[in-house]
Amino acid sequence: MASPARAMVALLLLLSTAAVSTAQQHDYGDALRKSILFFEGQRSGRLPPGQRVRWRRDSALTDGATAGVDLSGGYYDAGDNVKFGFPMAFTATLMSWGLIDFGRTYGPQEREAREALRWATDYLLKATATPNTVYVQVGDAFRDHSCWERPEDMDTPRTVYKVDTAHPGSDVAAETAAALAAASIVFREADPAYSTRLLDRAVAVFEFADKYRGAYSSSLHDAVCPCYCDYDGYQDELLWGAAWLHKASRRRVYRDYIKKNEVALGASDSINEFGWDNKHAGINILISKEVLMGKDSFFTSFRQNADDFICTLLPGISSQDHVDYSPGGLLFKVGNSNMQHVTSISFLLLAYSSYLSHANAHVPCGGAAAAASPVVLRRVAKRQVDYILGDNPLRMSYMVGYGARFPQRIHHRGSSIPSVAAHPAKIGCKAGAAYYGSTAPNPNLLVGAVVGGPSNVTDAFPDARAVFQQSEPTTYMNAPLLPLLAYFSAHPSLPQAGNDD
């Protein structure tokens, strides 16, 4: 029989779906395929022969030329045409983590997911080719944002920005090191030579990040703020980078670094947030695996932090403050692009549930009587995924191209302007404004793109380009969604409430 606390959680999960008349049976495998396809629509540089998003063409082929380096390739992170290194590196780290933990559930999409990851890591290798230097951005964000034009047409300055010994950026550099280290694990068997190259570079980049400390938003404030200003400080990224280097290399130096800097770098900060700017929750979940697997009791405090974080996601089972949920059941945090919180936190729930399952452990939220099982965590994560795919009051999928109803007017330049094939003549900076202001659906489907979604507690969504906070897709919203879709495609049914063990 389920304990009263477990019954309460089950009831809360049931109530969270009360606004939805009937639950749909989702094709998670199809959603996974489309989510990976989205990354092809975000590619910068020379597109490969196998490019499937045919309305896109080559773009930004001379990126880096003004600085004497090759910075072509990589991803446009959202609906504009700037390449921001900070969110791109975080995207790569999360893509890697998902493949490391759940790669076996990707099925035929595993190879495609690795290719999507490699498009990012190939670029990050270019961006870190110069010792003690990381190229962190290509494009003048303010000039770019004053235009509405296709990436194939852009004529705004492709200014190159970097951090180096005189202009430190420990946050972006350490995140880049984390991405390279995590990816080295993904490619260890598929491409050993590439894996070694990634790990070696990660070691060098992390050493630079740690030795020359400072926030890149201080060194490059006018260029990177407010778009990707580091509001949380660089300390969490240093721990995050060390954690991934420890996982990838198993070198004791990184283990010692984490323990030595645990307090100084804020590992004990109980912040129920995880994203490109704030890594605290992710650090605690990642390192907790070592404790739960019985490999390293050295990190017990990280498991306590992870448990505390998870409990904040389970209202009704814990007396501590918790995150809010909309009437329709969507995890809600104040700010722009709410889905970035939904997908990243849901992934942490899934990852931690996996670690707990293998350790035959639960999350104690206020004592043994209020322990949450791994299945409870998976049900919460699945509820969020199902909301994204259409189990919500509007009966709308927030993934473009999935389901019968989805956003038609996403805030995305390439998607909203006729393609080069349909309109070969250049569409200039200001000429694109007519497409931005149009109420017509976007002519090019950016299949698989997940938009910012409802940004208030009423589950409302305007489907308008101008409301970018709700209608713009980003790579870092899709990246943590991939393993969730892969896992639920392999495990579409979960035990019923009351059968959590």
UniProtKB/TrEMBL annotation:
Signal peptide start-end: 1-23
SUPFAM superfamilies named in the record: Six-hairpin glycosidases
Reaction(s) this enzyme catalyzes, per UniProt: Endohydrolysis of (1->4)-beta-D-glucosidic linkages in cellulose, lichenin and cereal beta-D-glucans
Catalytic residue list: 411, 463, 472
Residue ranges of every copy of the Glycoside hydrolase family domain listed in the record: 28-483
PROSITE patterns in the record: GH9_2 (PS00592), GH9_3 (PS00698)
GO biological process, any: cellulose catabolic process
Amino-acid biosynthesis as UniProt keyword: no
Record has Signal as a keyword: yes
Keywords from the named record: Carbohydrate metabolism, Cellulose degradation, Glycosidase, Hydrolase, Polysaccharide degradation, Signal
GO molecular function ontology, one term from the record: cellulase activity
Source species, domain of life: Eukaryota
Protein name in UniProt: Endoglucanase
InterPro entries, alphabetized: 6-hairpin_glycosidase_sf (IPR008928), 6hp_glycosidase-like_sf (IPR012341), Glyco_hydro_9 (IPR001701), Glyco_hydro_9_Asp/Glu_AS (IPR033126), Glyco_hydro_9_His_AS (IPR018221)
Family: Belongs to the glycosyl hydrolase 9 (cellulase E) family.
EC number assigned by the record: 3.2.1.4
